[in-house]
Amino acid sequence: MAMPPPVPPGKRKEIYKYEAPWTVYSMNWSVRPDKRFRLALGSFVEEYNNKVQIVSLDEETSDFSAKSTFDHPYPTTKIMWIPDAKGVFPDLLATSGDYLRVWRVGDTESRLECLLNNNKNSDFCAPLTSFDWNEVDPNLLGTSSIDTTCTIWGLETGQVLGRVNMVSGHVKTQLIAHDKEVYDIAFSRAGGGRDMFASVGADGSVRMFDLRHLEHSTIIYEDQQHVPLLRLAWNKQDPNYLATMALDAQEVSVYLSVSLFLPLPVSLFLPLPVSLFLPRSFCQSLSLSLSLSLSLWDDHQALIWDIQQMPRAIEDPILAYTAGGEINQIQWSSTQPDWISICYSNCMEILRV
């Protein structure tokens, strides 16, 4: 995608700040080419009624404005815009919490398109810890749950120009992914980018799945002490690199895959001499861009590491940013890799790095 023309000198700042009326927990950048600085924010309020807000930056005035706000049951554990960089799909937003919900976003208001619930025979629902939207096939979403399962959903988005169709979804497959709670799921760009995904959970393992061969799965890494793994992230450019974050960890661990050709191709992930380490605080979240890793820590710092140095050891981050409070969320902009967003307290800041 072509880069936008440069903004005249004096027009662009390095940091933009937005203050929400509640604590901001989840956040995601829009990837549509006509919505460069649009983000979705989710509240963290300790009650049933929570909020999701769509905000946009006006680059001429340097001001954020809230385009729409809608109610959401419980805090969102994750928010994602449909990965539609060409703008050919409906303008959709998905959220996870008690269920997976898909919303259609308009210029001034948003509406619920579908609620995806795989438990039809009970009033009980196992909360969803996370989900991922497949970049190669935006009709696929995967969810992870505390009930030890991962579910792959298929969407019907009604791609018909000139008319509005309801979005619907169905279960393509559900599988018991771990021995304990599953905390995160992420599709890999390996093998064409559509069928392979990994998950992490409370059993301390990273497991790899292929939608074409679900009778088998591969434990590609397992913590010897079975410390729960909370998050994982793939390098978007090279799917051979995977980063994980453990509970109360003081480091982000990076792994490199080694492919073995036995009766079937198998990838094993071996620890690199790369640990993004901060001895005095715990890692809270992580995000990988094409060449940089962004991790946040509970001492109000966001650290950026140059992972292009791998597999050589990485001693120090190349950039540190101290926020005005404990950081809840960080993300790179996938369409503008020199911009990151950081959420702390009721504030969201976007920074050019």
TrEMBL record:
<dbReference type="InterPro" id="IPR015943">
    <property type="entry name" value="WD40/YVTN_repeat-like_dom_sf"/>
</dbReference>
<dbReference type="InterPro" id="IPR045159">
    <property type="entry name" value="DCAF7-like"/>
</dbReference>
<keyword id="KW-0963">Cytoplasm</keyword>
<protein>
    <recommendedName>
        <fullName>DDB1- and CUL4-associated factor 7</fullName>
    </recommendedName>
</protein>
<dbReference type="InterPro" id="IPR001680">
    <property type="entry name" value="WD40_rpt"/>
</dbReference>
<keyword id="KW-0677">Repeat</keyword>
<dbReference type="InterPro" id="IPR036322">
    <property type="entry name" value="WD40_repeat_dom_sf"/>
</dbReference>
<comment type="pathway">
    <text>Protein modification; protein ubiquitination.</text>
</comment>
<keyword id="KW-0833">Ubl conjugation pathway</keyword>
<keyword id="KW-0539">Nucleus</keyword>
<keyword id="KW-0217">Developmental protein</keyword>
<comment type="similarity">
    <text>Belongs to the WD repeat DCAF7 family.</text>
</comment>
<dbReference type="GO" id="GO:0005634">
    <property type="term" value="C:nucleus"/>
</dbReference>
<keyword id="KW-0853">WD repeat</keyword>
<dbReference type="GO" id="GO:0005737">
    <property type="term" value="C:cytoplasm"/>
</dbReference>
